[in-house]
Amino acid sequence: MTRFNNSFALKAVTLSAILSMTAGLAMAGDGNVSTNQILDALKPKPVTRGLSAGPQVDPAVQAKESTFLNTVRNRSTRSLSTGEREQIAELAATKPKIDLEIQFDYNSADIAKTSVPSVQALGKALSDPSLKGSTFVVAGHTDAVGTEAYNQGLSERRADTIKKYLVLNYGLTGTDLVTVGYGKTKLKDAANGADPINRRVQVVNMDTKTASK
């Protein structure tokens, strides 16, 4: 009985640790996300116009956002200024998003084989009729190991890799994918800069007008 209780307690602790580690990340059992998890995270919440209850959209604000996004479409990731990167981050803060723990080969922008299923799930999700045609930001992030300049360049190359994969393999329109790199400037766990959780790709649905009613 003691052995059973100890085993049960160990399993409970292990399960609790797993839940804590994956909080904020839609992860499948093998460490990869599923298409449905990505869809659920990126579908915009319904917005309303006028005096009705619920979240409301300001047409003027929406027009301003669209104008800005049009200035960064089809731009090379490296060409974005610090101000433009921060403006993208500011807009993305209020949009539907998901953090994907996409691993890359060491010191490289090549997608690791173990993370290919996550990228494939992303391609299927963004090709879904409920999301297709929207504008998405693909943001690359690194951990805090290494210099700021090196990590900035690495995050940009990795964001570009994801975009290229999605365009080539899923026929997504390149102008609908805005890539940006943040290096180590926006750590998910700032207290543990070297934690792998910081090495991620964030995908944001910027085109919330698709959910207006």
TrEMBL record:
Any one GO CC term of the record: cell outer membrane
Protein's UniProt keywords contain Signal: yes
Domain of life: Bacteria
Main location: membrane
Keyword Zinc-finger carried by entry: no
Compartment(s): Cell outer membrane
Coiled-coil zones: none
Positions of the OmpA-like domain: 91-209
Keywords (A to Z) from UniProt: Cell outer membrane, Membrane, Signal
Listed Pfam families: OmpA
Signal sequence bounds: 1-28
Protein's name according to its UniProt entry: OmpA-like domain-containing protein
Organism encoding this protein: Bradyrhizobium canariense
